[in-house]
Amino acid sequence: MVSSPHEAMHRIFQDHPGLFSGVSEALGVRFTRPTAVSIMPTDLTETSPLERRVDTLLRLETEDEEPFLLAIEAQGKKDPDKLASWAYYASYLLTKYRLQPMLLVVCQDRATAEWASRPVQFGPPQWPLLTLRPLVAGPHNMPVITDPAEVRKDLALATLSAITHVTNPDVGTILKAMTTVLRETPHTLSDPIVELIAQGMGKHPAAEIWRKLMAVDLSFYKSPIFQEIRDETLVKTRAQDILVLLEARGLDIPDDARERITTCDDPDLLRRWITRTLTAVTVNDLFTDE
Questions:
Q1: Same domain, 14 and 64
Q2: How, if at all, do strands 56-61 and 120-122 pair?
Q3: What are the mean pLDDT values of the chain's consecutive 10-residue runs (290 residues total)?
């Protein structure tokens, strides 16, 4: 199943196609910023039953270079089978579109990024037929952007940087710099970026940091993800309030009751329990008629 970080790592290039120039420059390879970009079909399936689908495929045109195809793959873990698939993508795209292909692999894990970065040769060792050498962006080489001024210079690059550095110890500072800038960014641009970062954080601990920053720094922001965040925050707050009130009244809280309170995800039920804490003689009085 495709994960949220997987989607965020390549879909950002669909929303901000010029991002590739910033990423390649950050990685030490210069590509002229495109003057025109077309989103291409991602289905590379042949007439045979085998299905091959690249994550994102763009046609980039520049003033200085011939148009070329940019295939972007979000890679979450080492997968030896991917190497042959990537080589297939390159030859297929060249054959079908008669344009030179380029492959960018985006990773959140350093070990995976370093694995994907290694050149791979296909063919006999005495005469390799071809060499696969993708450009790889990951926590090992993407800039760590913690200064809002740097975020403003290239918001798309800063977004991808935040996503690739999801496990960085300074991820809280990275995300804080993002919300500082997003507060002053027009909604048409900031809203999709807020969603991309939320997806990119996945189930990492940084996701909770982003949720809190969204609730405080981006309290104006409204979306299904944000509503979910607010609901979860409300549930956690009410559960903690119940425990504080019970302890303040000197009532013993058995482990099973504590777990029942902290794992409850019904805001209305938690509200009733808060009301009952005012008159409860024992903790079990909270659960009357439940």
A1: yes
A2: unpaired
A3: 76 85 86 84 69 87 88 93 92 93 95 94 83 94 95 94 95 94 87 90 91 74 58 73 84 87 82 81 79
Question: How much is the pLDDT for 18?
Answer: 82
- CA dihedral for 18, 19, 23, 25, sign (positive or negative): positive
Extended beta strands in the chain, E state: 36-39, 56-61, 68-74, 100-106, 120-122, 130-132, 135-137
- Determine contact, residues 66/90, Cβ cutoff 8 Å: no
What pLDDT is attached to residue 1?
45
Q: 60 near 70, Cβ under 8 Å?
A: yes
Q: Which domain holds residue 23?
A: 4-137
* CB-neighbour burial class of residue 2 (10 A; exposed 0-12, middle 13-18, buried 19+): exposed
Residue 273 · residue 262 · CB < 8 Å: no
Cα–Cα separations (whole angstroms), residue 106 to 11, 30, 172, 208, 246: 11, 17, 21, 23, 49
Cα-flanking dihedrals φ and ψ of residue 72, to 5°? -120, 125
Nearest Cα residue to 146 out of 126, 173, 167? 173
- For the chain, helix, strand, coil in percent to 5 are 50, 10, 35
Q: Are 152 and 181 in contact (CB under 8 A)?
A: yes
Could you tell me if residue 5 is left (phi over 0), alpha (psi between -120 and 50 degrees) or otherwise beta? alpha
Threshold 0.85, pTM exceeds: no
DSSP state of 107: -
Pair 73, 172 in one domain = no
| Claim to verify: residue 33 and residue 113 sit in the same structural domain | yes
pLDDT of amino acid 283: 84
> Among residues 137, 167, 182, which one ends one of the domains?
137
Q: Which residues, in sequence order, are CB contacts of 276 under 8 Å at separation 6+?
A: 285, 286, 288
Distance CA 158, CA 151 (A): 5
